[in-house]
Amino acid sequence: MVKNLFLLLVITSLVTPAKGAKISLSQKSVAERILQESIKTEEINLTAQLAHLALVQSQSAYDFSAALESGYEVSKLENFTGTANPKDTTYKTSLTLKKPFFTGTTLGVEYTLTTINSEFSTLSTTTLPNSQTQNLVGLTLEQSLWKNSFGIVDRANLRAAENTEKSTHLTRVTDQQNLVLEGIKLFWKAYVAQETLQEAINSRERYEKLVETVKKKTNYGYANPGELAQVQAELETRIQNVKAESVNYLAVLDQLSTLLNLEKGSEIEFQVPNEIPPLPQLNDIQVNELRPLKTSQLKVAASEDYLTASRSKSYPDVSLIGKLYQGGIDEKASESYNEMISGAHPKYYIGVKLSYSFGSGIQNEDYVNKKIQRDLDQAKASRLLLEIQDSLEHSKRKVQMTYAVAMSSKKQLEFRDKAAQELQRAYNQGRSDISLLIDSLNKFFGAQIQYSKNVGDYQIALNEWAALRDELITDAPVVNKGGQK
After folding, report:
1. HSE-up (13 A, CA, CB side) for residue 78
2. What is the pLDDT of residue 126?
3. What torsion, rounded to 10 degrees, do the Cα atoms 463, 466, 467, 470 define?
4. Cα gap 296→193, rounded to integer Å
5. In the predicted model, is pLDDT for residue 485 greater than 60?
6. Are residues 265 and 340 in the same domain?
7. Domain assignment of residue 330, given as a range
8. Which of 65, 115, 347, 474 is most buried per CB count within 10 Å?
9. Closest alpha carbon to 27 in 227, 356, 256, 206
């Protein structure tokens, strides 16, 4: 476990950071802090929000469209009434409102108010009044029959955008899970670095005591030639190790603090289980339900819809047009309005509109591009399925292996400790050579470090397995410190 006093003394000898709060960290608290406080989490959430624009753009195909125009015109053009060089002053206001529907239908309403004031020449024999007002209201309908046949293009683009939005959400959660896994790996890396530093301190202290023992034996004439120099050289090695491991520990601690957005100089206490957790017994999972595969499936579906839309857009645009107008003209504006609403002067129109763009070949190239993208997404999805299946099997075997190695290294540590103690007693009694004791002590210190590393490897393997199974974090949206979802 952590021995903060020794670590603080060693670290303070190298650097003197600003005093920060004391923070207790566990795997769970690391995951929670990453999701709530990490700047990287905020980046992931903001990046995911950028993709929402594509969906809104597709939905905008069904927006209302309104236009208002009002103007004043003076004209001396001759007209079909046969009047000679009249002067017309026209006030015109028009309002239009259009609404597309998912069936490929566009409905429109038009209203126009026109007032004409005319000044006829003295040679004119017209009996037309000098001032007239026209009210005109109309209902228009346009139905696409081929290019966007009954809305096939708009609906395909909308489905593709919705699937892309869903895949973006899943990608965001996957990115958050990968970030949590990165944080947990750093947590165990920092813990192992701390334990390695602690063992370096312990080995230095043990060699300091051994040096004192050899000095006493030398003073009494019981030591063999070169024994004191050997242990003094080993002590210098341990002093070097303490300095090197201190720098390594501080570097990893800085990485962890930056990822967790901790206050500089914070004192971290690692909370880890005292015993090696047993192998988990997990149920089988549906591989196709994992986030990466669901994301790839959504991308394939979106590619299919984009291909459908591109194919349809390559056809000519044939539309059925229908129009119905009611109007009224009178010297008085009120009488003109009454004529319009009475329906006494209707106007009907029905027709077909054909349009086609050609010359650059862009539609054919767009279709080929969308087909290649669809095939590419399908290939990626097939490959990803195989890779995830392999990764799950490998991760399971890795967990079993690291658990066995951790348990074995625990036994090895016990044996190394026992051997070092026995050789220490034998040396003190003059029954063993100093080189055997040094070799035993070095192997014991190495076994302690390896044990901490193996425990960390096992814990990391467990979390990697959980991440592959989508069990490290849930699909629920997480709000970070910036309030971004």
Report:
1. 6
2. 56
3. -160
4. 38
5. no
6. no
7. 65-146+317-361
8. 115
9. 256
